[in-house]
Amino acid sequence: MRALRTVAVALLLCMPQAAFAQTERAAAAPAGQIALPEDAIAYIPPRAIGAAPLLVLLHGATERPQSMVARFRAEADRRGIVLLAPKSAGDTWDMIADFDRRRSQVVRSRSARLNVDPPRINRAIRALLERASVDPARIALGGFSDGASYALTIGSDNPGFFRTLLVFSPGMLYLSPRRSPGQRVFLSHGSSDPVLSFQASKSRFVPQLRKEGLAVTFREFDGRHELPDIVLQEAVAMWLDMPSESAQSSASEARQK
């Protein structure tokens, strides 16, 4: 498999296709939480049989990986999803630290700093692949708040690795020169968010992503800076193409907005 690209620096690791082979070590990996390099954590659910889907989760500013794993653990248990939550080197992700987080914007500059956290994410992924069997066709990147903004940047520049992006309440959109037509994006935002602008997501980020050719599902919900259960479930259902009856109607309405 091609190694992960970054927008502003050369690629950091080489992860060959063989890394995804189901080795005896990976097959025997016990269910539960695993500590990984760079303060990352992973969670392997009891139902993770064979090559499992992998969801990489990026935390918000000042948060820790544990919060993301805890938030998605129930859905991981229900669907057999392996979770990986890297940790940013600082209070937030390196690119975000270079910009005003609370000023919603579409950034086109090539000067964003992307040389600290991408290597950490790559090392965490490599370490996980030594312990769990993962389906390379079902790898998604998700994030909340600052983590959502960073997921859009890293994910949209690596469409061959992350085929789906699950983006919850982002605050900015960094547009890299690389295009990824057809890549799926689930983007949600609370209409009363007091932290990061809902209107920026609805009126700027979503139209721009669609203009770039990404297949965007936008989910507006009546709430604040949060991730409701129903929205989380709809996002995962879209990724795995297994819509539940409760989620199917809401997701259909969201795509029409």
UniProtKB/TrEMBL annotation:
Residues 51-233 form the Phospholipase/carboxylesterase/thioesterase domain. Keywords: Hydrolase, Signal. Transmembrane segments: none annotated. Residues 1-21 form the signal peptide. It holds the Pfam family Abhydrolase_2. It comes from the Bacteria. InterPro entries: AB_hydrolase_fold (IPR029058), Plant_Biomass_Hydrol_Est (IPR050955), PLipase/COase/thioEstase (IPR003140). This is PHB depolymerase family esterase.
